[in-house]
Every structure is written in structure tokens, then in C-alpha cells.
């Protein structure tokens, strides 16, 4: 049964590649799930179970037909709207309100400067220390130096720091300006710097996730915008991104070695387990999950934070893991998280809702033009299935601020605002 997702997503990748006559975002999505499904096959056949986040062991593994169909079917439903966009047919991305887009860009640049101020004096010390201990301290609830520094600042500064997750949007904004709204080179540099804000913040807890996520979304933007970039822009980007890529690879290697070199499977084995566990853990959730414990703090994080005073933090996950009888903070793909939170019925409702929202934004196939608001929303929605190979991305309430910015851009792009 473990071969089914790999074969299915490989065929889906090939089908969309032929239909779109090249690599589009939907092809990229399907290929990501084909790759992780291949690693799943390796995990099962090389007996790399019951560690590295994989909940099944060799004695209780149950990969039955129903969760396999749900896994392949609902992931396909999530990717399907993005197959309506053919990048070769897009001719222009524009906005009727360039001042609003510029204001948001400068706001996010300002947030990234705040983040740099908070992390600058501790980053080198962390990188030169014991990264395994740093990560353990994070799991034990010990605040990072940046968070301690932030808490000593005025309330308005601490509140603004919640928007650091929103700097994710500077990546598509960078490509938009580069390709469709020419600006000075220093403005591009500031936007690119801002886009690295979350990976820089992730170093505070020796986290690999933000760097991996950045790479995934950077490739997605390159796939979409590559044909609009001038030869000069492509050449400069290659040269400028080489040191960033080297730095990220070195950092990821250092964190992985410090945390997992002593394990039986070693560093390489951990990477295979890390990236190839989503289908296995989805099936485990299906077989072992106690769906009477329905809760939606990951789907409605802002509501649960301010109304019920519940956050998706380490304490809450430990509490829920005790009720479930297994450690739930593992990678089961985003639909695995949704299913464990809302039950299988809730999963069906949520996936249909996500499909309808995505289709309403994309509107129709073979589009030739998009507004900035539509593309930013397209980008923010694509984050869910793309990074969903691991987990549901928008599970913490600061991301609601980001989605609020996305909604604001989308709505204001529907009409021209006249300034008097």
C-alpha cells in the first residue's frame, strides 16, 4: 500500500506537466508529494519506523485503503484550483492602487528591520554554540534572547513584532516589483532582506523549518515569475542568492548534525524520516485518532487566542497528546492536522471550503492577467498545500495578521482609490 501515493502523485505530476507544457505551480506541488511519498516507501522498506517522528513501528503498521484514498483525494482537491493557472498565459500583473502596495511593502520592510535589531546581537552566539541545546531549551519553553529583548520593549513594539510572520509576503512582492513595476535596486534589496526575516528569527530556536519553508516558496516564485525576468535580473539573482543558499545549507547541516548524528539512522536517515513521514502519520491518525476530542485552535487561532485564551503551544500540544495517547506534534501533512483537529467529517468540510475559496480567487482557467491582490492571495493559499507536506502552516494566531493583510490587498485591488 505504501507505493500507492508515490505512483499516484508521480502520474499526477506527469499529467499536469504534459497539460501545462512545462513546470507550473501545480506541477511543483504534485512533484513535492511524489518525492515525499518516495521517501515514505524508503522508510517502510528500510524499516526506519518508530523514530524520527514516525508513529508506526514495524509491528503495528496499518496502511489501509480508506486513509490512502482520503490522503490522495483530498490533497488533489487542495491542489486542483492551482492547476487552473497556466503561467505561460499570464501576460501581466498590475494594481489600481500602487500606493497601497508600496505602503505595505515599506511596513513589512520596517518589521524586518525590527526583527534584525532583536536577533542581531545573539545570532552569531547561537550559531557558534550547541544548537542541540538551543533546540531543547525551545521545547522546554525557555524564551530565546530575541523574545526576552522584545518583552523589554514598549507594548506597541511587541505588538508590531507579531507581524514578523507577515514578512513572508515580501517574497512575492519582490518578484512583482522586479518583473512588473520597476524600482531602484536598493528597494529590491530591502524587500529581499525582509523576505529572510523568518529564517533569521528561526535561528533563535535552532529551527530548520523556516529555512526549508523559505526555499520551498522561493522556488515556487521562481517557477511563476521566471519568464518575466530579464537576463540581467536572472544573472544578478543567481550571483546574489549563491551566498544565501550556501549559508542556509550550512545552517541546516549544522542543526541536523547537532541534533541527529548520534541516532541509529544518522543524519541522512533522519532527513528521509523527516520528509517522508506525512502519509504514514496520516494513516496513523486515521487508525489511532480519538476524534471525539474536536478542537479548532489551529484552524481558528485568533478566535481561540482572544476568546478562549487557548494557543497552539507546547503545553497545549502535550495536553492534547495525552488525550490522544500518542505524540501529535508530528508531520502528517496539513490534511492530517485538520483531520485530527476536526474529525474526518470536519476534514471533508474544511477541504471543500478551501477548494471553493481557492477557485473563487483564481476564478477561471487560462487567465492572461491578474491583479497584485489576486496573486498575493494565490500565493498565500498555495502555501497551504505546498508547505502542507509537513503540517498546516497557519496554525498560530500571528499568521492571522498576515492573512488580514492579504485580504486587505485583495479587496482594495477590486477598485481604484482616488486620493485628493
Would you tell me the overall average pLDDT? Answer: 92
Distance between the termini: 65 Å
SSE topology string: HHHEHHHHHHHHHHHHHHEHH
Q: Could you list the spans in which at least 5 consecutive residues all have pLDDT below 50?
A: none
Q: Count helical runs.
A: 19
Strand content: under 5%
Summing up helix and strand content along with how strands pair, one would put the structural category as mainly alpha
- How can the largest sheet be summarized? 2 strands, parallel
Output the strand order for the largest sheet: 1-2
Morphology: globular
Percent of residues in helices: 55-70%
Task: Return Rg in Å.
Answer: 21 Å
Please count the beta strands (DSSP E, at least 2 residues each).
2
Short description:
This protein has helices at residues 3-20, 25-45, 65-79, 98-127, 131-139, 145-151, 155-160, 170-180, 185-195, 197-202, 209-225, 231-260, 266-275, 278-288, 301-306, 314-324, 333-362, 372-387, 398-412, and strands at 92-94, 369-371.
Q: What does this protein structure show overall?
A:
The chain has 420 residues and is mainly alpha-helical. It is built from 19 helices and two strands. It has helices at residues 3-20, 25-45, 65-79, 98-127, 131-139, 145-151, 155-160, 170-180, 185-195, 197-202, 209-225, 231-260, 266-275, 278-288, 301-306, 314-324, 333-362, 372-387, 398-412; strands at residues 92-94, 369-371. The longest helix has 30 residues, at 98-127. It is globular, with a radius of gyration of 21 Å. 39% of the residues are buried.
